[in-house]
């Protein structure tokens, strides 16, 4: 389940990056922030893909830290967005991040990501 939610988050980051680049190509008054957003989205996406692969394979506890950091950041951002305007997207971001964070700290997930002791 965690891996599926991470794939969803990576896909959303790819969509955000592509949308930013398309907006710049079509002509934007603020190309700098849009290019920055695209670069950050791609960077976070690559980090999440690496963590996703590590979680999938198991035995690599390092992957939990960046994934949890991203989930906490999404939760904080979505709560801030709700203060401005509650929308379906805001609620979806909050739910996906909260479920991912909880799944990340469940005993089976933690056990799966711990290195095997011989």
Which SSEs are present, and which pair or pack?
Blueprint: H1 2-26, H2 31-57, H3 64-84, H4 88-105, H5 107-113
User: What is the helical fraction, as a range of percent?
Assistant: over 70%
Q: Please provide the count of β strands.
A: 0
User: What is the tally of helical segments?
Assistant: 5
Number of domains: 1
Please report the distance between the alpha carbons of the first and last residues. Answer: 28 Å
Mean pLDDT: 94
The backbone outline, from C-alpha atoms, is globular
Structure, described:
- The protein has 118 residues and is mainly alpha-helical.
- The longest helix is centred in the middle third of the chain and has 27 residues, at 31-57.
- The protein has helices at residues 2-26, 31-57, 64-84, 88-105, 107-113.
- Helix 1 (2-26) runs antiparallel to helix 2 and helix 1 packs antiparallel against helix 4 (88-105).
- It is globular.
- It has 5 helices and no strands.
Task: Produce a short descriptive summary.
The protein is mostly helical.
Structural descriptors:
118 residues, mainly alpha, globular
